[in-house]
Amino acid sequence: MGISRSRGAGKQDDSRSARVGPCVVPDEPWSTAELAEALSPLLVGTRGLLRPRDCTVLDVRPREHDVLVRFRWMSYPHVLGRGLPPRSQYTEDGGSLEPRYWASDALTWFDEQLCTGLLVTASRRERPGFIELVDRPGPAADRRFCTTSTEPDDEDVWSAVDLFEQDGFDTRPVRAIRADGSLIAWVRAHLDSRTGSPWVGHAAVTRTGATTARLEFCEVAGDVPGTVVVDLCRTAAHIASWHGAQRVVTSLGQPELSILGFVQRDDHRELDTAFLGEDHEAVGALIRGSRAWKPSGRVRRAALLARLTHRVVGR
């Protein structure tokens, strides 16, 4: 966004407390207690930062180096937390905004983070009474591909599954799951190209009990790296957790599932939806190890066909 709220830079005097508009000098920031006090009325008890059923903020707490926002997300079984830095993410001069201006920027940044995948890609740390979302030390996803999820009632997508089938995938299994009423989400992956084509894989997750979901299948094109499996299965598991699943089970055998934290049980694999067991180093290594991958002739032909026919993913 890059919009600075530090108006009228002007000249600074020699006083450490000199303020220019809403900005204070960089070496005398406002306390996190003051920032938390300004942010709390904007967040606590509110719903619908994204959609009405998505987010409920529980409290805003000052910490030594940041302001902690604790919240619930949809029907996710754990309380989550995110630390907000005391410096605005939208100023360019490094100064500290007055609390009311900082709170406005912090609200926007928090919303932006939730909108752009933080819940799926963040590293997680177990804290007393909540799970904190923190920035990963390395990459979380293969940026050459994008994932998109579809819920059972999204008629626009379901009426156009033939476009997905044109890239070589059989949609009969997922359509049958949708018909029996157990589907939570259908997740698809596509090449991050100008047209968003071609599709390169898909997965489905279903409800099997009040707190249990099942990863039914994960199918990918034979010429794409295992990072696509990671992105598809991770996204599917997280969406299931937002609908109340405390665990995700599967009989699938893809080795990438171990990286995500799936553990072997007697006759199945199981993932705890606290998501504390993902091996971030292994994910990063898998992404780095696949950097040499280039789209095959099949993928390039499909992308060219999409450009010629102006086909756009999701339509």
TrEMBL record:
Region (Disordered): 1-22
Identification of the protein by name: Uncharacterized protein
Organism whose genome encodes this protein: Auraticoccus monumenti
